């Protein structure tokens, strides 16, 4: 019996590349593909795949979202489906949190898509996949105190939510239709209120305190 896989990415070319890699293995079958979180969940409800391969950042909605929030949702609602994440994110804290949220494996898009074969082989053997250059779950510090988040303005909160989800200041500026200077200023202000001295400390605080779930 073939292993059923659903794939999700908002770029059709990436979807085609993923599908090509998967379908070279006769043990695997792509039963559906989606380009946003809502369509992905609908496919999973209908098809009941064994594995889902999803991009980390996809256009979402206020209910599902993407990133860590989506991984957590999939893990809670589809416990029998293994989750393999594709991402351009390289921040160790975010990658560690992906595993904590329920991912069975993380593959960086910046590498060779053939790494999918190695990752899928691990999942088929009921093992999690961990690339040697990725951090382990214990790379993330213990949960912090999120009470200081009440000091953030709505705009500062949105900026750090997107930043902690792996987007750059430039990405956030384009998404929110603000200047990069304005976004940078709001990020610095949020960091000061949260007591974070570096980008790494900011991301770790946001993820460890479960600030956006």
What does this structure look like?
The chain is α/β, with parallel strands linked by helices and 213 residues long. The protein has helices spanning 12-22, 37-47, 67-77, 92-101, 115-124, 154-164, 169-176, 180-194, 199-208; strands at residues 3-8, 28-34, 51-55, 82-87, 105-108. It has a five-stranded parallel sheet, with helices on both faces. The radius of gyration is 18 Å and the shape is elongated. GO terms for molecular function: DNA binding. Keywords: DNA-binding, Phosphoprotein. InterPro entries: CheY-like_superfamily (IPR011006), NreC/VraR/RcsB-like_REC (IPR058245), Sig_transdc_resp-reg_C-effctor (IPR016032), Sig_transdc_resp-reg_receiver (IPR001789), Tscrpt_reg_LuxR_C (IPR000792), WalR-like (IPR039420), WH-like_DNA-bd_sf (IPR036388).
Largest sheet: 5 strands, parallel
Oligomeric state? single chain
Number of DSSP-assigned strands: 5
Q: Classify the beta-strand content into a percent band.
A: 5-15%
Could you report the average pLDDT, rounded to the nearest whole number? 84
Shape: elongated
Residue windows where pLDDT falls under 50 for at least 5 positions: 137-145
What is the CA–CA distance across the termini?
A: 37 Å
Q: Which structural class fits the helix and strand makeup? A: alpha/beta
Share of residues in helices: 40-55%
Order of helices and strands: EHEHEHEHEHHHHH
Rg over CA atoms: 18 Å
Number of helices: 9
- Order of strands side by side in the largest beta sheet? 2-1-3-4-5
What's the arrangement of secondary structure elements?
Layout: E1 3-8, H1 12-22, E2 28-34, H2 37-47, E3 51-55, H3 67-77, E4 82-87, H4 92-101, E5 105-108, H5 115-124, H6 154-164, H7 169-176, H8 180-194, H9 199-208
Parallel strand pairs: 1-2, 1-3, 3-4, 4-5
Helix pairs in contact: 3-4, 6-8, 6-9, 7-8
Organism: Stenotrophomonas rhizophila
Modified residues (4-aspartylphosphate): 55
Pfam family, one: Response_reg
